[in-house]
TrEMBL record:
Gene Ontology cellular component annotations, sorted alphabetically: cytosol; nucleus
Species annotation: Takifugu rubripes (Japanese pufferfish)
Record-linked InterPro entries: H3K4_H4K5_MeTrfase, SET_dom, SET_dom_sf, TPR-like_helical_dom_sf, TPR_rpt, Znf_MYND
Name of the molecule in the record: [histone H3]-lysine(4) N-trimethyltransferase
Function per UniProt: Protein-lysine N-methyltransferase that methylates both histones and non-histone proteins, including p53/TP53 and RB1. Specifically trimethylates histone H3 'Lys-4' (H3K4me3) in vivo. The activity requires interaction with HSP90alpha. Shows even higher methyltransferase activity on p53/TP53. Monomethylates 'Lys-370' of p53/TP53, leading to decreased DNA-binding activity and subsequent transcriptional regulation activity of p53/TP53. Monomethylates RB1 at 'Lys-860'.
Catalysis: reaction(s): L-lysyl-[protein] + S-adenosyl-L-methionine = N(6)-methyl-L-lysyl-[protein] + S-adenosyl-L-homocysteine + H(+); L-lysyl(4)-[histone H3] + 3 S-adenosyl-L-methionine = N(6),N(6),N(6)-trimethyl-L-lysyl(4)-[histone H3] + 3 S-adenosyl-L-homocysteine + 3 H(+)
Documented EC number(s): 2.1.1.354
Gene this protein is translated from: smyd2a
GO-annotated molecular function: histone H3K4 trimethyltransferase activity; zinc ion binding
Gene Ontology biological process terms, A to Z: methylation
């Protein structure tokens, strides 16, 4: 296998003094300009979106047809089905064999596809112009016992569901490294409202280092990752992406980065902590009692972790879940201001539950409380802000608040034209929705 070329036009791979290998610009890039695009090395559509998206190209459409064998995978046409067959074949056989007992995690499904691809692809791929998948960091030496146990459970699931359909599965040591590499370097593909569509590996995109004040953003066009400038880039500037949700204060971000990616962030935002005071704002009439405030922050962080673990709502749990959100907001609201990020997190969860319950008025009320603080806390051209404006726009239109709906959609559009590019089909869809209201 040839070595990676180490450059994509307008960029070059380099070794920085404090972050190791990274990517920098060798020419000027304007805000909104495409820096580079990277097709997925391997990817998998999430089970929850089957029937709504094509498994091969991730196109969203209503007239998909399903695989005749497993009746689980859906495609645009015969060409898409043929294109996916080399990867879908093993999953198709496994799903037919296991029926309702087929339940590997998305990470296991992705790793199975990577193993299969590595068996049939010996040349450097178009996804590896800067970095080869085999050169990913695994950080195995930094993994704690919990992560190691999760890794071993994934390996066991891979053997259980796929051993009959993949010849010569790598040994457990190799699998341990591969799962660790995928967990540290994998990406989740999301739609314009940040709903989870699937998981993928984009080696060249993984080369970029992290900053809590990123100068680029990663968005998706089908199964291709596109990297666009959200700040002016000049020759010599390091190209920096964000690995995490940037809503939270510095200490929370540092904890998350250390836990998931095994490094301590030293970016300018972590140094200045310029937004922390507003992010953990206390009610004006509350005397600053550090112990009470710290206790409430711990309570909020524990709640966030609980919600992270319970990723999927079950209809039977929705009313009590909404009640939990409201009770938590009352408790935190005795100390925290409404613009405090922990309050916003709980409002976002409550809004999500309202949307699932089709309580459009309730969802709209939470969205209205969230949107302006979001615009302040997040960096410019944030997808989190754009997706909230989109959700609000759709809620307003559904509730026949046409003027407010169009205004919200236009605000979403102004961010999306930079983040996704003016020629993206998400942008075209929002423009069409605005036109329909005239």
């Amino acid at each position: 296998k040839r070595a990676a070329a180490h450059c994509i036009e307008g960029t070059e791979r380099f070794v920085s003094t404090d972050k190791g290998r990274g990517l920098r610009a060798v020419r000027h890039f304007s805000v909104g300009e495409l820096v580079f695009a990277c097709p997925a090395y391997s990817y998998v559509l999430t089970v929850n979106e089957r029937g709504a998206y094509c498994e091969q190209c991730f196109t969203r459409r209503e007239d998909l047809f399903k695989c005749g064998k497993c009746k689980q995978a859906y495609y645009c046409n015969v060409d898409c089905q043929r294109g996916d067959w080399s990867m879908h074949k093993m999953e198709c056989l496994a799903m037919c064999a296991y029926g309702e007992n087929w339940c590997p995690s998305e990470t296991v499904r992705l790793v199975a596809r990577i193993i299969l691809k590595q068996k049939v692809t010996t040349e450097q791929t178009p996804s590896e112009r800067l970095l080869l998948l085999k050169d990913f960091e695994s950080h195995l030496d930094k993994m704690d016992s919990i992560k190691d146990e999760m890794n071993q459970a994934d390996i066991a699931a891979l053997h259980h569901f796929y051993s009959r359909y993949i010849n010569d599965i790598p040994d457990d040591q190799s699998l341990t490294e591969l799962f660790a590499q995928v967990n540290c370097n994998g990406f989740t593909i999301e739609d314009e409202e940040l709903s989870h569509l699937g998981s993928a590996i984009f080696p060249d995109v993984a080369l970029m280092n992290h900053s809590c004040n990123p100068n680029v953003i990663v968005t998706y066009k089908g199964t291709v990752a596109e990297v666009r400038a959200v700040q002016e880039l000049n020759p010599g500037d390091e190209i920096l992406n964000s690995y995490i949700d940037l809503l939270y204060p510095t200490e929370d971000r540092k904890e998350r980065l250390l836990d998931s990616y095994f490094f301590t962030c030293l970016c300018s935002e972590c140094f200045t902590k310029s937004k922390d005071k507003e992010k953990i704002k206390i009610r004006k009439n509350i005397p600053p009692e550090p112990e009470k405030i710290q206790s409430m922050i711990c309570y909020a962080k524990n709640l966030i972790e609980e919600f992270r673990r319970a990723k999927h709502y079950k209809n039977i749990l929705l009313p009590p879940l909404l009640e939990l959100c409201e009770l938590s907001l009352d408790k935190m609201g005795s100390i925290f201001a409404d613009t405090n990020v922990y309050m916003l997190h709980m409002m976002y969860q409550a809004m999500g539950v309202c949307l699932y319950m089709q309580d459009w008025e309730g969802a709209m009320r939470y969205g209205e409380k969230i949107i302006h603080p979001y615009s302040f806390h997040y960096p410019a051209y944030s997808l989190n802000v754009a997706s909230m404006y989109l959700k609000l726009g759709h809620l307003y239109l559904g509730l026949e608040k046409r003027t407010q709906g169009v205004k919200a959609l236009k605000k979403a559009l102004s961010i999306m034209e930079v983040a996704h590019g003016k020629d993206h089909y998400y942008v075209a869809e929002v423009k069409r929705e605005i036109e329909e209201q005239k």
